[in-house]
Amino acid sequence: MSRFLKTRANEHAIETAPLVSLALDFALLLLLLLAPAPAAAVDPDRHISQYGHTAWRVFDGTIPRVIQITQTTDGYIWLETTDGLMRFDGVRFSLWRADDGKPLLKGFSALLGSSDGSLWIGNSDGLMHLKDGKLYTYAKPHEKATIAAIVEDRAGTIWVSRYHVPKGSGPLCRAGEAELVCYGAKEGVPARYALNLTLDSDGYFWFGGDVLCRWRPGSAATCFDKVGRQGRTGMDIQELTSGPSGSVSIAIDAVGPQFGVRYLSGGKWSPLIVPGFDGPSIRSHGMYLDRHNSLWVGTGNNGLYRIRDGVADHYTSQDGLSGNSVSSFYEDREGDLWVITDSGLDMFRDTPVVSYSTAQGLSGAWISSILARRDGSIWIGNQGAIDILRNGQHSLLSPRDMSGDSLVTLFEDHAQTVWLGLSRALLAYRNGRFFEIRRPDGSPLRQNYEFPITEDADGNIWTLGQTGHLFRIKGEKVVEDIQLGESLSSATLLEADKSGGLWIGSKGGKIARYRAGQLETYSLKDDDGPLSIREIMVETDNSLLISTDRGLVRWSNGEHTVLGIQNGLPCESIYSAIKDDNGLLWLYARCGLLQIDASQVSKWEESPTRPVSVRVFDARDGAFPSGQTPRQHVSSKAPDGRLWFTNGVMAQVVDPKHLARNEVMPPVTIEDVIADRKVLGAQAGMPVPALTRDLQIDYTALSFSVPQKVRFRYILEGHDTAWQDPGGRRQAYYTDLKPGKYRFRVIASNNDGVWNEQGASLDFKVMPAWYQTFWFKLLVAVIILTAAWALYRLRVRQIAHALAVRFDERLAERTRIARELHDTFLQTVQGSKLVADEALEASYEPARMRQAMEQLSTWLGRAGREGRAALNSLRASTTETNDLAEGLRRATEECRMFSSMKTSFSVEGDSKEMHPLVRDEIYRISYEAIRNASAHSKASRLHVDLKYGQDIAITVSDNGVGISESIINGGTDGHYGLQGMRERASRIGGKLRIVSSVDSGTEVSLVIPGKIAFRGNGSTVIE
Question: How confident is the model over 13-27, as pLDDT tens digits?
Answer without folding.
Answer: 223 333 333 333 443
